[in-house]
Design a protein that fits this description.
By secondary structure, the protein is of the alpha/beta class. It folds into three domains: 19-110 and 267-445, Glycosidases (TIM Barrel), CATH 3.20.20.80; 119-168, Oligo-1,6-glucosidase, Domain 2 (Oligo-1,6-glucosidase, domain 2), CATH 3.90.400; 185-266, no CATH class. It is built from 15 helices and 20 strands. The protein has helices spanning 26-29, 40-45, 47-53, 88-100, 119-126, 183-198, 245-257, 274-279, 301-316, 334-338, 341-353, 381-385, 429-433, 439-452, 455-458, and strands at 20-24, 57-60, 65-66, 75-77, 104-109, 138-139, 158-160, 166-168, 203-206, 264-268, 288-290, 323-325, 357-361, 459-466, 469-476, 484-489, 495-498, 501-505, 517-520, 524-529. Strands 11-10-9-5-2-1-13-12 form an eight-stranded parallel beta sheet. Strands 14-15-16-20-18 form a five-stranded antiparallel beta sheet. The chain is globular and about 80 Å long. 51% of the residues are buried. The chain binds alpha-D-glucopyranose.
Length: 530
């Protein structure tokens, strides 16, 4: 029989290949100064919690001075800290504390657009002939918009300036798109990267990394973009995934590699074609390229199995690790999306077994559901730009519950910027810490086992599916012992699966195995060894 003793994971070099990264929605994570808004001091105070969870790195959503039109993704000054969140010194302190705990810190950089309050755009508005105007996409005054391009948040991607010109914004009108063919734009971002890297920051999550360049002739898109589409496909052919963007990532990668402890980049590449996503993670480009097909998958075994197989092949083809993500600040929480906490827990075990890195979104380790946000409390521009037809993303951005017995569940002494729904305290960290069956306990155990078994997170995977049951066999690459299989039953009836020893189960009601067979209930995942 094969030796199944756990093996301490070999040197993690480079660290990012199999990292577990924890996404912090800064405004909603922890409030250090009691104003109802999360901030850097709050995050610093909660770093021991993240170290205890076992993650390798923290990704912090945008912290810059912003126009407030899109949750911080409309940046006014790329080397600033919004006073709501603290100061540049707070970032330095965060990095020092994090490093002391063995955690890396990634910030979020937004190169596709600025805020309309950015000094460049102000000057561009004031003077059409200014050098700053050449840093954006302006088109001459005309009755109709220059072409059929649509904003990803709804409506045309063009708005008019007071003097009648058109300017491009793939998101809100407060987020004018930058013109990346202009060397001044390119060089300014080099400086931004170095500013934060020199402060000790370990890398960046790159917003809209498949954007930046647009068709130089501003030709119509061959179709009309709709946010309900699966990914960004041909209907965005002129506005995303232009060839020039890869040169930017090569340039940024060279900057990362120029540091003694190289920095890392993870890009948002929301393209439907996974082979195209893989091209962003070629060895001299981004370290990780997010693909969102799993995130967008319904609770369906065929869809999960096919997506995982295809994604692994796409990243293998370029020698890159696959980054997995089931939830983020743009998507309804998985408990609600999949229909139950039970399913969300099973999906988490599947994700944490897969080779590559896993991105967790703050609160998923508590099993938070999507919250109902009253219309008058909503903040997301998607809600407003769709005339209320799309609920928007506020429901996954609710302030974290820390201590169930405290005011606002320990998030803040003041009224939180987004209301916590009734019952939120029941999900609090302190309540789950004392419960071995909690979702928090499950995540901790899973991450711990991932550290102990090289097959988990850094093994080679083969995926098979029988009906609603998906099997992922994971073998350590280095030949170390400890092969693990992850089984997930996505169907409605129990299934018997072969197993020698149960390592971890997403549901406490799994027992066995008996005589080499484990009874896997509906909506359950297990890790077993042989
Ligand atoms: C990305 C971000 C999203 C933001 C958009 C515009 O998709 O994840 O939150 O609204 O870019 O910057």
């Amino acid at each position: 029989m094969q030796d199944t003793r756990p093996v301490e994971r070999a040197a993690r070099d480079p660290w990012w290949r199999d990292a577990v990264v924890y996404q912090v929605y800064l405004r909603s994570f922890a409030d250090g100064n009691g104003d109802g808004v999360g901030d850097f001091p709050g995050l610093r105070s909660r770093l021991p919690y993240l170290a205890g969870l076992g993650v390798d790195a923290v990704w912090v959503t945008p912290h810059y001075v912003s126009g407030g039109a899109d949750g911080g993704y409309d940046v006014v000054d790329f080397t600033s800290v919004d006073p709501d969140y603290g100061t540049v010194e707070d970032v330095r302190g965060l990095v020092e504390d994090a490093h002391g705990l063995g955690l890396r810190v990634l910030l979020d950089i937004v190169p596709n657009h600025t805020s309309d309050r950015h000094e460049w755009f102000r000057r561009a508005l004031a003077d059409p002939d200014s050098p700053e105007a050449a840093r954006y996409h302006f088109r001459p005054a005309s009755e109709e918009p220059p072409n059929n391009w649509q904003s990803m948040f709804g409506g045309p991607a063009w708005s008019r300036t007071p003097d009648g010109r058109w300017y491009l914004h793939l998101f809100t009108p407060q987020q004018p798109d930058l013109n990346w063919t202009n060397p001044a734009v390119v060089e300014d971002f080099d400086r931004t990267l170095r500013f934060w890297f020199d402060l000790g920051v370990d890398g960046f999550r790159v917003d809209v990394a498949y954007g930046l360049f647009k068709d130089p002739e501003y030709r119509d898109n061959p179709g009309i973009y709709s946010p309900t589409l699966f990914g960004h496909g041909p209907e965005q052919a002129m506005t995303t995934n232009q060839p020039g963007v890869h040169d930017v990532w090569r340039r940024w990668r060279a900057i990362c590699d120029s540091y003694a402890d190289p920095k890392m980049l993870v890009g948002e590449v929301s393209l439907a074609d996974l082979a195209e996503v893989g091209r962003y993670a070629r060895p001299d480009e981004l370290h990780h390229a997010f693909q969102f097909r799993l995130l967008k998958s319904d609770w369906d075994a065929a869809s999960f199995a096919d997506t995982i197989t295809e994604a692994l092949a796409a990243f293998d083809a370029v020698g890159a690790p696959a980054p997995w993500v089931l939830g983020n600040h743009d998507k309804a929480r998985q408990v609600t999306r999949y229909g139950s906490l039970r399913r969300a827990r099973a999906a988490a075990l599947l994700m944490l077994a897969l080779p590559g890195s896993a991105y967790l979104y703050a609160g998923e380790e508590l099993g938070l559901p999507e919250a109902d946000v009253p219309d008058q409390a909503r903040r997301d521009p998607i809600f407003f730009r769709s005339g209320g037809k799309r609920a928007g993303r506020d429901g996954c951005r609710i302030p974290m519950p820390w201590e169930g017995g405290e005011e606002n569940a320990g998030f803040s002494g003041a009224t939180p910027w987004l209301p916590q729904p009734a019952g939120w305290a029941g999900y609090a960290v302190d309540r789950q810490e004392s419960d071995p069956g909690s979702t928090l306990a499950l995540y901790r155990q899973a991450i711990l086992l991932r550290d102990l078994y090289p097959a988990l997170g850094s093994g080679r995977a083969s995926v098979t599916r029988t009906g609603d049951v998906v099997r992922v066999d994971l073998v350590a690459q280095s030949g170390e012992p400890g092969a693990v299989t992850c089984w997930i039953n996505m169907g409605a009836t129990p299934a018997g699966v072969p197993a020698h020893r149960l390592l971890l189960s997403s549901s406490p009601d799994v027992t066995g195995p008996v005589a080499g067979v484990l009874r896997l209930k509906a909506d359950t995942a297990v890790w077993v060894t042989w």
